[in-house]
């Protein structure tokens, strides 16, 4: 994904451009229509997909320490907040520790879902934080974006969980981390989840689950094209491929043609030989020092890291 895509193109336009490019590729942001988001939610519950439960357990186990690191009177800004599930443990811990969270500003492209999530969060926290200002912002945070003015004392901290920074190539990740730093400003920080480099067999299993949910998530790109981009993909003529590239320290996902075929998208014809692929996602993995060095390139100062005993996942606290 590229954090500075100048204008919001339609899926049809980007699909035609991606299938016309060499090598053929698509941005992973197109995974997340309603069907794709539901499939991603299922991925997060899979036995093989360790990141979600590992990060959730880390946040819960270290919540008080993390709250202390986030410090007093901070408004939490969460790009790509989705259902705003993980932030609750932070807000509760901040309140418990006397750190007085100043507000919550979730950003997401899916407006209806975001407003419902903000309402649910207010209701859920009504016991502990009944007056917490929650300011949902419907926006694509990969596009140029002006945040609302900071609340009274102006301190902000970012929250970017889930390992999503790995879906950007390193140069793109630096640009996105710089953008977050511009939003947060001096005196703030960023709490960010990062998937760690590990045994490739474990990574391979996480992206090739036996239930086939990740395959369905990948193939939903073609189902979505048929729904939205006047395309005629035959889903049975494609298969999901996911593998670890040690050279790039990343999982790559592709959709691979099972046979020679021609596909039409928005009036354009694309020919594929058997075995031809379209690159649909990168999921970059980092060592702890490797990610700290990347964050430093974006001007962040690495302060703390929490990880699990199996060294699967890391949660970093960076200061601006
Ligand atoms: C959203 N992101 C961190 C997921 C990942 O692991 O890179 C997306 C995903 N792709 C396949 N499975 C999950």
TrEMBL record:
Keyword Glycoprotein: no
A GO term for molecular function: methyltransferase activity
UniProt keyword annotation of Membrane present: no
Pfam families found in the cross-reference section: Methyltransf_33
Entry's Gene Ontology BP terms: methylation
UniProt keyword terms in alphabetical order: Methyltransferase, Transferase
Domain (Histidine-specific methyltransferase SAM-dependent): residue spans on this chain: 13-319
Source species, domain of life: Bacteria
NCBIfam families per record: egtD_ergothio
Record-given protein name: Dimethylhistidine N-methyltransferase
């Amino acid at each position: 994904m590229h954090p500075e895509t100048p204008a919001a193109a339609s899926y049809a336009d980007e699909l035609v451009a991606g299938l016309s490019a060499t090598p053929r590729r698509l941005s992973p942001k197109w995974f997340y229509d309603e069907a794709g988001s539901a499939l991603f939610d299922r991925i997060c519950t899979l036995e093989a997909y360790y990141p979600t439960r590992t990060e959730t357990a880390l946040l819960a186990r270290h919540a008080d320490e993390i709250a202390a690191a986030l410090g007093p009177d901070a408004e939490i800004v969460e790009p790509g907040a989705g259902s705003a599930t993980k932030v609750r443990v932070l807000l509760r811990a901040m309140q418990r520790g006397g750190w007085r969270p100043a507000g919550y500003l979730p950003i997401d492209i899916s407006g209806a879902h975001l407003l419902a999530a903000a309402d649910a969060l207010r209701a859920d926290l009504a016991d502990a934080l009944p007056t917490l200002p929650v300011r949902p912002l419907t926006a694509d945070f990969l596009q140029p974006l002006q945040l609302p003015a900071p609340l009274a004392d102006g301190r902000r901290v970012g929250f970017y969980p889930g390992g999503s920074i790995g879906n950007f190539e390193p140069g793109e990740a630096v640009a996105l981390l710089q953008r977050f730093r511009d939003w947060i400003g001096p005196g703030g920080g960023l709490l960010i989840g990062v998937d760690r480099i590990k045994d490739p067999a474990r990574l391979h299993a996480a992206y090739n689950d036996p239930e086939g949910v990740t395959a369905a998530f990948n193939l939903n790109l073609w189902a979505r094209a048929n729904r939205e981009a006047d395309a005629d993909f035959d889903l049975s003529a494609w298969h999901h491929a996911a593998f670890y590239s040690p050279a790039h320290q990343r999982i790559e996902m592709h959709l691979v043609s099972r046979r020679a075929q021609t596909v039409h998208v928005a009036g354009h014809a694309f020919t594929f030989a058997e075995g031809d692929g379209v690159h649909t996602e990168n999921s970059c993995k980092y060592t702890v020092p490797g990610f700290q060095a990347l964050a430093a390139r974006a001007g962040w100062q690495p302060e703390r890291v929490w990880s699990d005993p199996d060294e699967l996942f890391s949660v970093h606290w960076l200061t601006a």
